[in-house]
């Protein structure tokens, strides 16, 4: 097999659409994926000028023809067009010039079809608009306590935790909810950022207004821009008059998750909306007033996102009027028993289910890289295998039990050594401190955690021993 034959076979099995034109804009390569995306047979495209096949495009709107003219690659650009059969297609394209020395002899475009994704996003936006219209049509006078909208979202009472750091988070939620300030929430994946954001909305005077959430990393730039800012008919091929999320959330709260994944150009547009309280849809000249509270979130410290060039400094300072940091689960281990009880009630289907001391010990010693979400999934998964009413070590994931593929010691040897060492350390701390509170300080762990560990090891408190 020669090199050309091999290359053609690779082009045919590629899942991305590949479209190559010569220096005149005539198609010379058009693979199977591109054919399926566009709904056209290869023989309907090969040997024809691109504007003959896609009459809705022009020399300015066609990425292939633009790159032919400029010689400058265009990366991850959204393009919506209609083929000569009347089918409208939306793709994300990366287009590159093909050169021979300093001469441009063609252009190559690699495409991913996002027509279905775009249609779904637009349908979601339409449904949101319909829901909002229905809410506005309802009779006024509904109190917040009885609001159907408010009951759909988490409140501050849904934030599980009695550790000092979580009590502080709850206090911040209540305080910031009383203001109109924009907020930036940050924390590792699985720490409960959206729960906190919804609690802020529910406790605010915007609770009866819309709450709209969008993950900024979930959509390509062009689609995200249209979804957030809205589109105007004629703004680009196939565009319809649609309000964006900023308009749909007006009067309420717009939550932009992973805002540091939003392209910097869109961050600049968002900053303008925050400053002017007006939004301009794509392709429109009219600016529309919006009254929306914007809450953003990041999975890394926001200043780190700024330093890495992921978050514009000016947008950071506009959003971080109030900044709430959520601790990883490993930094609030005393909340684990409460969370376990909460998730057992949530997923236990009305049954009274408990966890064995060994399981709770594993939960308290595991570092939970996936945080609260990982804990919930571990409990939910264990219930799927549970036949009795107590979750045992065999029911929970091996990683949580501390079992790895490289363990080479005798079964239970490390666990036994650690257990004995822990018991000795607790007994020594109790002897030195004279009380549970002082022993907890010596060991550097919360009193609640120490009491639980004492129960596991059958250790009585100093006062109990004195009474005996």
Summarize the structure.
It is built from 21 helices and 16 strands.
Word description of this protein:
There is one protein chain. Helix content is 44%, strand content 17%. The chain has helices spanning 3-13, 32-38, 50-53, 63-70, 115-137, 148-151, 164-177, 193-203, 221-229, 245-248, 264-276, 302-307, 313-319, 336-347, 357-365, 371-385, 398-401, 413-433, 436-443, 447-457, 462-467; strands at 17-22, 27-30, 74-82, 88-100, 103-113, 183-186, 211-215, 230-231, 242-243, 253-257, 278-280, 287-289, 293-298, 322-325, 354-355, 390-391. The protein folds into 4 domains: 3-113, Beta-Lactamase (2-Layer Sandwich); 117-325, Rossmann fold; 333-401, Helicase, Ruva Protein, domain 3 (Orthogonal Bundle), CATH 1.10.8.60; 413-467, Arc Repressor Mutant, subunit A (Orthogonal Bundle), CATH 1.10.10. The chain has 21 helices and 16 strands. With 468 residues, it is an alpha/beta fold. Helix 7 (164-177) packs across helix 8, helix 14 crosses helix 16 and helix 19 packs across helix 20 (447-457). Residues 138-151 and 404-411 have low confidence and may be disordered. Strands 2-1-5-4-3 form a 5-stranded antiparallel β-sheet. Strands 7-10-13-6-14 form a 5-stranded parallel β-sheet. The chain is elongated, with a radius of gyration of 29 Å.
